[in-house]
Amino acid sequence: MKSKIIVALDVDNFDAAARLVTQLGDTVGMFKVGSQLFTRYGPRIIELIHAQGRQCFLDLKFHDIPNTVAKAVESAAALKVYMLTLHTAGGEEMLRAAAAVQPRPLLLGVTVLTSVAGDQQAEVLRRARLARETGLDGVVASAHEIVPLRKELGDKFVIVTPGIRPAGSDVGDQKRVMTPGEAVRVGASFLVIGRPIVADPDPAAAARRIGAEIGG
């Protein structure tokens, strides 16, 4: 992907999502669809993103028995999403079943949510090791854990980082945050950014400012 920015479509209706995809289509290459939108609109929202020539990061954090999760990955593959998330808490058997699906999107293991406060490094590393050992392509982790993750897992392992807030922004319910420039410098593969772009009066201008900060 040309851009490291993934815009989180954390809005409550289809028309708002459609406006954002249209406004940002020339600025970013990927949009995150989470439980809020997908529960209400399903594949329709993914089709909207693809119609604009952009990629979809499906963030539903699958966590169920191995066969059910494998079937969910197959369904996501049929929708041609670029990446999707699984909870590493689902365990080794579940993660291996998901990774065995072919062809499939990039699979990311959710480690510890960025709304959880405190020093989570040991737990994030433990879950990231499990993700790699079971065949996943990367993890979702706070920028505060990227340095030890890169040291242990190398440069090719995908690290998608939420909890990104430009300097001076409201952190909301996030606890472990970092600015876009800082996150890229320590090794983030992709930055998931929602409110700082989505809630801005000019979302495209906000995305361009962040793009300039991280160098693309």
- Count of individual helical segments: 10
Mean pLDDT, all residues: 92
Radius of gyration: 16 Å
Which series of helices and strands comes N to C? EHEHHEHEHEHEHEHEHH
Strand content: 15-25%
Number of strands: 8
How far the N terminus sits from the C terminus, by CA atoms, comes to 11 Å
How would you write the strand order of the largest sheet? Answer: 1-2-3-4-5-6-7-8
Poorly predicted runs of 5 or more residues: none
What spatial form do the alpha-carbon principal axes imply?
A: globular
Which structural category fits the helices and strands?
A: alpha/beta
Fraction of residues in helix? 40-55%
Largest sheet: 8 strands, parallel, barrel
Can you offer a commentary on this structure?
The longest helix is centred in the middle third of the chain and has 13 residues, at 66-78. Helix 4 runs parallel beside helix 5 (92-99). The termini are close together. The chain has helices spanning 14-24, 35-41, 43-51, 66-78, 92-99, 121-133, 146-153, 180-186, 195-198, 203-214, and strands at 5-8, 30-34, 55-62, 83-87, 106-110, 138-140, 158-161, 190-193. Helix 6 (121-133) links the parallel strand 5 (106-110) and strand 6 (138-140). It is 43% helix and 18% strand. The protein contains 10 helices and 8 strands. The protein has an 8-stranded parallel barrel, surrounded by 7 helices. The chain has 216 residues and is α/β, with parallel strands linked by helices.
Sequence-ordered SSE layout with sheet pairings:
Blueprint: E1 5-8, H1 14-24, E2 30-34, H2 35-41, H3 43-51, E3 55-62, H4 66-78, E4 83-87, H5 92-99, E5 106-110, H6 121-133, E6 138-140, H7 146-153, E7 158-161, H8 180-186, E8 190-193, H9 195-198, H10 203-214
Parallel strand pairs: 1-2, 1-8, 2-3, 3-4, 4-5, 5-6, 6-7, 7-8
Helix pairs in contact: 4-5
